[in-house]
Amino acid sequence: MKKIILIVCSIILLGLIVLPFLAQRYFSKLPTPHTEPPTQPNLTIDETPDVQILMQRLDIPWDIAFLPEQNVFLVTERDGTLLYINKDTEITEIPVPDATHSGEAGLLGIALHPNFSENRYLYLYLTAEQNDGLINRVERYTFNNGSLSGKYTIVDNIPGALYHDGGRMAFGPDGLLYITTGDATKPHLAQDLSSLAGKTLRINDDGSIPEDNPFGTAVYSYGHRNSQGLAWDDAGHLWSTEHGRSGIQSGLDEINLIEKGANYGWPESEGDTVVSGTQAPAQHSGASDTWAPASTLFWDGNLFFGGLRGEALYEAVLNGTEVVEIKEHFKGQFGRIRSVILGPDGLFYLTTSNRDGRGSPSEGDDKIIRINPQQFRR
User: Fold this and answer.
1) Which three-class secondary structure state does DSSP give residue 138?
2) How far apart are the C-alpha atoms of 256 and 244, rounded to whole Å?
3) 66 pairs with which residues across the strands?
C-alpha cells in the first residue's frame, strides 16, 4: 500500500513540474484576453486607438502579409514558422521546410503575388543549410486553407551567413519582384556582379530575368551591405533602408534612392565618403547614431522604417527625392522595432525583435503592435 501511495504521489509531483512547461509552450503563441481582432469595423480610423497590442508571445516575428480575405494575415517567424492568423486571431503554425534559424538568418521576408486572389502564390525568403554552409533562397508556394503546397524555387544560392542576410521582398508597380540581399559578412561580394550578395534583385514572378535588367542577371543595384527595406513613393521612385557598419564603429545607416544599375559603394563608400562612380545615400544616420533600419514604408508623402538598435519608429520627411528631416516616434517604448507594414485598414502594423538575442525582452514579447498613423498628423 505504501508503494502505491508513493507512486501516486510521484506521478502527481511530476505532473505539477511538467504541466506548467507544456502549458507555457502550448499557449505561448495564443493571444491574450486583451488582444484585439485585426480590425474594428464599427470604428472609423479617426476613432481607432493610437496604439494597440494586437498579438503577443511570438518568436521573432519578421514580416507580415495581409490576405484578401478580411482580417486574415500571415506572419513569418525567424525560427522557421509561418503563422496563419484568422479573423478571430486564432493561430495555425505552419513549419516551412528547410528554413534554418541561426544568428540573423532564418525565415525572413514574405510577399504575395499581385494576383494572389486567383493563383494563391506566396513567396518566402529563407536561409537553408547546404554542404559548404548557409545559403538564402526565395521559394514560391501555393497557399490554400492554411497550408503550403507546390514548392518552387524562384532564386537559389544567394550567399548566406549568420549575419547580413537581407531578406525583404516586395512586388513593384511594374509587377516584378524586388529582393534585398546582404553581403553575407563578405563585403567584397557587394561589388562582385557575379554574386547575388549585397544587391537589390529584380525578377519576374517565375524567377526568370526581365529583359531590361541592367546586367542581364537578377541584379538591379549593387554595393549594399545589408538592406532590409523596400518601398515606392507616389512618383514611382524606389527607396530602401540599409544597415551601416557594426561593432565598435556603428552608425552610418542609410536611406537610399535606388536606381537601376547604380553602385551604392559598400564597402569603400559609407556616410559622406562617396567613392567616384558610386551613389551617395539620400540620408544617413551619422557616425554617432545607429538606427539599424529593418523595413521601409511610404505613407502620406514620407518614409517610415523600424529601428532595431535605435528602438524607434523613424519617419523620414521627404521633399521630392530629398530627405529633409528625421523624426523619431515611440523612442524606447517597444524596444527593437523591425517591420512596419501598412494594413488594408489604413493602420500600421509593427513587429518587435526583442527576443532575437540582442534585445531586452519585456512581458509578452515579441509583439505585433497596431498603430493609428493619424496621430503623426495631429
Assistant:
1) strand
2) 12
3) 73
Amino acid occupying residue 46: D
Residue type, 376: F
Name the pLDDT band for 17 (thresholds 50, 70, 90). very low
**Residue of 179, 239, 235, 234 lying closest to 205 (CA atoms):** 179
Tell me the CA distances in angstroms from 224 to 83, 167, 316, one per residue in order. Answer: 30, 13, 20
> Rounded to whole angstroms, how far apart are CA atoms 200 and 296?
14
Polymer length of the chain: 378
Single-letter residue type at 176: L
The grid cell for 66 is 495581409
Burial tier of 322 (Cβ tally within 10 Å: 0-12, 13-18, 19+): exposed
Give the pLDDT band (50/70/90) at residue 249: confident
3 state SS of 247: coil
Give the DSSP H/E element, type plus range, for residue 240.
strand 238-242
Q: How many other CB atoms are found less than 10 A from the CB of residue 300?
A: 11
Given a contact cutoff of 8 angstroms between Cβ atoms, the answer to whether 158 and 137 are in contact is yes
Cβ neighbour number for residue 286 with a 10 Å cutoff:
14
* pLDDT tens, residue by residue, 307-351: 999 999 999 999 999 999 999 999 999 999 999 999 999 999 999
22-44 pLDDT tens trace: 333 334 444 443 344 444 556 67
Across 242-261, average pLDDT = 91
Task: Spell 324-345 as b/e; 16+ CB within 10 A means b.
Answer: eebeebbeeebbbbbbbbbbeb
Helix (H, G, I), strand (E, B) or coil at 338: strand
Please state, as a whole number, how many other Cβ atoms lie within 10 Å of the Cβ of residue 189: 22
pTM higher than 0.85, yes or no?
Answer: yes
